[in-house]
From TrEMBL:
The keyword Repressor does not apply. This is Histidine phosphatase family protein. One of its GO terms (molecular function) is hydrolase activity. It comes from Saccharopolyspora elongata. Keywords: Hydrolase. It comes from the Bacteria. PANTHER family: PHOSPHOGLYCERATE MUTASE-RELATED, SERINE_THREONINE-PROTEIN PHOSPHATASE PGAM5, MITOCHONDRIAL. InterPro entries: His_Pase_superF_clade-1, His_PPase_superfam, Mito_Ser/Thr_phosphatase. CDD domains: HP_PGM_like (cd07067).
């Protein structure tokens, strides 16, 4: 039975203009080194500059893997809840029916392309953003759509999901930052105690 091995990586830390910082470049090098021992076939990336640059850096550690853009990996809100939890109400302020429909379309396209078994054994790296990673984890766990909220992931954190025919997806790792030294580990989402 063929397995599709999907290695989800959030891009490295970026500045307010969406370009990788020195920290983001170092994070990308370290996750590239971590992935170097795996039989990676392709590195897919979002079209946004921070993901493009992260993929280029990761690709230098995977010389046998193609590095390609996938529009489905772009940063987007995957689901707009009808009744957002109070802590998220301000985040969704201004989202109407049109935005909710676009969010659903983007989320469906992402899942249709990457959250399914492949015909042959594949090992694919997806360099994307926090929200698509959260959506794919939520999808793999068959959790309610609103559950993507709060599934934050660190810059260059590694999440691994396997897809096989006839069985539910397997989430092997989520938000693993073991390849990063302590000072490079965090999500970038709000102030909190760092583990």
């Amino acid at each position: 039975m063929a397995t599709r091995h999907v290695y989800l990586v959030r891009h490295g830390a970026a500045d307010p203009f969406g370009e990788l910082t020195d920290v983001g470049q170092r994070q990308s090098e370290l996750v590239g080194q971590r992935l170097a021992g795996l039989p990676i076939d392709v590195v897919w990336h979002s079209p946004l500059p921070r993901a493009v640059r992260s993929a280029q850096i990761v690709g230098t550690y995977l010389p046998n893997a193609a590095v390609r853009e996938a529009a489905e990996l772009v940063d987007h809100v995957p689901h707009v809840p009808d009744n957002a939890p109070p802590a998220w109400a301000a985040f969704f302020d201004g989202y109407g029916a049109e935005e909710a429909a676009e969010a659903e379309r983007c989320a469906d396209a992402l899942a249709d392309r990457f959250a399914r078994p492949a015909e042959t054994e594949t090992h694919e790296v997806l360099i994307t953003h926090a929200y698509p990673v959260a959506w794919l984890v939520r999808h793999a766990l068959d959790a309610p759509p609103m559950r993507w909220l709060g599934l934050n992931c660190g810059n260059t954190a590694l999440t691994v999901i396997e897809y096989r025919d006839g069985t539910a997806p397997t989430v092997l790792l989520y938000n693993d930052m073991g390849h990063l030294p302590t000072d490079l580990r965090w999500t970038g989402f709000g102030a909190a105690v760092r583990p």
